[in-house]
Amino acid sequence: MSQITADVAEIHWLMDMFQTVDVGLVVLSADYRIQVWNGFMENHSGLTPRQVRDRYLFDLFSEIDEDWLRRKCDPVILLKNRAFTIWEQRPYIFKFRNYRPITGSAEYMYQNCTIFPLTDTRGVVTHLCIIIYDVTDVAVSRMELESMNGRLQTLSKTDFLTGLHNRGAWEDALINEFKRVKRSGHQSTLLMVDIDHFKRVNDTYGHAAGDVVIKQVALAVKKNLRSTDIAGRYGGEEFAVLLVDTSADQALFFAERLRKNVEAMQIEFNQQLLNVTVSIGLGDFQADLQQYRDWIERADKALYQSKAGGRNQVTKAGGI
């Protein structure tokens, strides 16, 4: 094989690789007109090299942020340095649909990109080459992992039966609120809520019925909450509700509404209708409370008074 024949064969092989390589290759002139468009770009855009040749890039692909891309490319031309973009910063440059069955959850292809200068024989930058890497698999896996971690974090703070905060998460919120109102002097009120005669429900209808009752009472709590309020399952049949920036008198309206809602509920279990009530104790924040447990104890004493007074009632701490 002569040297000329070998050179021609090498060019032919390079062209074959250029067209079949699994990355996008685009060459732009200095005024951002497309000069080279490989098979990857044709397959994903639906546009042939003939259709895009000498076309202004931003006319063909309006989704590209022209100002942003020019800011990325200007240093490449001036300094002859490479530039890089990653999908975490910008999901894609070319908005290609994702057709991979494994990563079907992604609507569009996530892309990493390398931009480097092409020079003439004098070393002057005349063109830019953009390489597009399809990183959809990596991006989707990363996002699914982050989503799963988020769900696990949520589950670690959530009571499985009721969907409310579990005791640990709720107490953490109470500690933060205690510090805030201690420092700011704002008003917040703590409610302790207990299902009356709950043991009788379990003994008469079984623990499955008890779980249904707990879930329904928790649902009533949720329906009465504002977005800033924090409710948790404190333990067994007892719930705790933190009413942020709320005085005892204001909290009384919430507590009475909740009590009446629960009293009016008819809970169906095994074709039987169960009726339950709740007793509620209110403890508003007081400046002389030394620690958050004192706040809980204040509301808990009011709850005990509701129980001792005949149940199905609301009592404010201090008998105010």
Can you walk me through this structure?
Helices cover 46% and strands 21% of the residues. Strands 2-1-5-4-3 form a 5-stranded antiparallel sheet. A 5-stranded mixed sheet has the order 7-8-6-11-12, with helices on both faces. A hairpin with a 4-residue loop joins β1 and β2. It is elongated and about 95 Å long. α8 crosses α9 and α9 packs across α10. The longest helix has 21 residues. The protein is α+β, with helices and mostly antiparallel strands. It has 11 helices and 12 strands. It has 2 domains: 141 residues, PAS domain (Beta-Lactamase, 2-Layer Sandwich), CATH 3.30.450; 163 residues, Alpha-Beta Plaits (2-Layer Sandwich), CATH 3.30.70. The termini are far apart. It catalyses: 2 GTP = 3',3'-c-di-GMP + 2 diphosphate. Its EC number is 2.7.7.65.
Keywords:
single chain, 320 residues, alpha+beta, Beta-Lactamase, Alpha-Beta Plaits, 5-stranded mixed beta sheet, 11 helices, transferase, diguanylate cyclase, EC 2.7.7.65
